Predict the 3D structure of the following.
Amino acid sequence: MTKLEAIIREMIVAEGPMRLDRYMALALGHPRHGYYTTRDPFGAAGDFVTAPEVSQVFGELIGVWCASAWVALGQPAPFNLIELGPGRGTLMADFLRAARVMPGFREAARVSLVEMSPTLRALQKQLLGEVHWYDSLDEVPQGASILVANEFFDAIPIRQFQNNGGTWFERVVGLGDTGLQLGLAEAPDLMGQGPHGEDGDIIEWSPQRDAIATAIGARLAAHPGVALVIDYGHLKTAPGDTLQAVRAHKPVPVTAAPGDCDLTSHVDFEALGKALRAGGAATAPVITQREFLLAMGFEARFAALAAKADGAARQILDRAKSRLADREQMGNLFKVLAAHTQGLATPYPFGQS
């Protein structure tokens, strides 16, 4: 039993079954025993690999996109260059390097990282030096902004509701019949009967995800800016159980070893777009990661790297290229959403026919 599991068990004994979003918040962000507050989870030695860890090309192309967006904004100086959930800082390092092609961009950028984990902040500092850190987006100073969120929203806690015989019940974490092990259970849904659905349907809702997206929209409504969101998920709101736990690159039960496993769910891009627009931003039609990368010069950049590589290095490059953009891998599973200040042109390559 992990230390955090013991704490959660005590809370359930004292207060009753725990809502799923509260369980996820504790499992991922508990100040002493949370998953992200106590470790570096990225890479082969961790629990999962994100796109910036697969290849530098991913971050470089986002850097080119950010530099182009800065020009479209009128080259404001200074401006906030914001990343939500920056991991080790790999993505920011790669796109700052690539953005040097645009004179004045780096000098104007006020690098602002929204990161709660002291462990990850230390790694970011090693890679990026002295930048600005914040616990939440609300703390970042107002002003012109370019915001990037790569694999950030998938880790935001969700609630789940299940249709059982025509009645919707909220899924909660309890101690089971024996009282010895954490497990998922049902509690009456305080929202009433809920939407129409088939028996067994599960719907997911993330109030916190919506609130963050609405705050991004409000920031873009108040000051010129753009936002780029990249994550795995679905284009349309639909029933489905997408909550998953991973440890050492393998799936495990979602209530197993809280604090030692990553917990994520697929991002509902339809709901995310609605929340951004509710905040006052404009959004472009969502495209796949494959479409975004190909439009940004993905193949040409890999070809340039391969031309300088030996046989073994070319094989590594080929595997990275396939993982990022193949339809059967990250290419179609991951989606890309752009939001921008009302009245500004839709950023490339969004809205292209």
Summary: The mean pLDDT is 90. The first strand starts at residue 18 and ends at 19. The CA atoms of residues 151 and 274 lie 19 Å apart.
